[in-house]
Amino acid sequence: MLTALVDSTGRAAAAALDESDPLKDRRKEFLLPQGIIYLDGNSLGPLHLSVPARIDAVLREQWGQGLIRSWNSAGWIDLPARVGARIARLCGAAADEVIVADSTSINTFKLLAAAMKLRPARRVILSEENNFPADLYIAQGLCSLTERAELVVARCGTLLDAITEEVAVVMLTQVDFRTGRRHDLKSITERAHEKGALVLWDLAHSVGAFPVALNDVNADFAVGCGYKYLNGGPGAPAFVYVRRDLQAAVQQPLSGWMGHARPFEFLNRYEPAPGMARHLCGTPAILSLSALDAALDAFEGVDMAVVRQKSISLTQTFIRRVEAEAEPLGLTLASPRESEHRGSQVSYRHSSGYAIVQALIADGVIGDFRAPDILRFGFTPLYLSHVEAFAAAERLCEVIRTRRFDRPEFHKRAPVT
Ligand SMILES: *Cc1c(COP(=O)(O)O)cnc(C)c1O
Q: Could you identify the atom of ligand 1 that is nearest to the CA of residue 238?
């Protein structure tokens, strides 16, 4: 009875929020399958409707008809910089401070190595134990190449104190991929600079989810992902940011020909291109890059402050509905309760987390699971409604209340969780 009451008033409140939602018309720009509530746009953004037409044109006209001429005539050669400029607006950077290239992992390698070169008297790459492991693996790989570098992983909550004068670069993912806790760009960047260290921000769970102000905080380096909140498609290329005054001094080690000052002079000696172009290595993946470019249409004319407001109200709607449940569910909120400290996701811990997520997916609510016990739900304001956030929370409670997740098929682990 109690649950039913909560549901009807909660649902009405959610519907009222949707009614006054300034972003409500954006949803029809996306292809979203019928009957699915998609809470995994933080892992793989959905298909934006600009993409198929663009890819079709790139395939049939630019590649099919234009052939190799399209490097010039269709502007393929400048595409990494043009798409970078569009992403720059979303991260509070100037158009010439961002370029699209490679993957987040590879870009992390390039910038860590570049940071070590800029601080030759220092050895330490400092990160935090809850950082996305891929970035730690990359740092470990770099350290295995040279005695010069040492990775120090700070315990959670001790990062600021660990920034000493031995630290060359602080490498940190702004939003914790498990809990959604959001680090403060400004205080960490400031502390690093006080100690003479550089900062490399991984913005994989930030850009496209809320406003990021790289220039305002004077950030040195950043990387981020094209296929999460930016909806560029599976394996979309990633981006690199370097603050303008550092650009000329930065030497990245994957000194490929596309980052050469004059690639078509075919000189034997590497000479880095000016600006951000030196962060290119090999030939850009034009099909993927075109998909990312088209998908960025979703952000045209969008104020990221409005996106943030809606993200907060979506996550609050979800959390409140879970908290209104009368029955004990065994769920523990893993994300910060105060919106200020959350990114655009809500995570819970539960000992049967994996099976619960599978049961929810079977029920049309797609979230994901992160070992050992995290149920993760991403909220993407451009295409989600409050009614969906509310309904997803209802189904989560129901799957646990009825123990539908106990079925054996929900316990079989797939390679991707
Ligand atoms: C998704 C993600 C990456 C992924 O990097 P890829 O090279 O694209 O696989 C890196 N860092 C963080 C924090 C991520 O969330």
A: 8
Q: Using CA of residue 151, residue 156, residue 160, residue 164, what is the dihedral sign?
A: negative
Q: What is the pTM of this model?
A: 0.97
Burial of 194 (0-12, 13-18, 19+ CB in 10 A): exposed
CA 225–ligand 1 middle distance (angstroms): 6
Mind listing the pLDDT tens digit for each residue in 10-50? 999 999 999 999 999 999 999 999 999 999 999 999 999 99
In whole angstroms, give the CA distance from residue 71 to residue 264: 13
Whether 353 shows a pLDDT value over 80: the answer reads yes
Q: Tokens 């797609």 map to which residue?
A: 366
- Catalytic choice (132, 354, 369, 405): 132
The span from the CA of 111 to the CA of 117, in Å, is: 10
Give the distance (Å) from ligand 1 centre to CA of residue 133: 9
Sequence-ordered list of residues with C-beta below 8 angstroms from that of 325, at least 6 positions apart, any chain = 3, 6, 397, 401
The H-assigned helical ranges of 203-247 are: 244-247
43 lines ligand 1 (CB under 6 A): no
Query: What pLDDT is stored for residue 198 in this prediction?
Result: 98
Q: Which atom of ligand 1 is nearest to the CA of 103?
A: 7
Has residue 146 got a pLDDT over 80? yes
Which stretches of 195-278 are DSSP H helices?
244-247
Other beta carbons within 10 angstroms of residue 371's beta carbon come to: 10
Q: Which of 26, 122, 228, 321 is catalytic?
A: 228
Residue 376 annotated among the catalytic residues of the structure: yes
pLDDT of 76 reads: 98
What beta strand segments (E) does 195-312 contain?
A: 198-202, 221-224, 238-242
Q: What percent of the chain has pLDDT over 90?
A: 97
202 is catalytic: yes
Asked whether 205 and 228 are in contact (CB, 8 A), the reply is: yes
For the record, the structure tokens of 367 come out as 């979230």
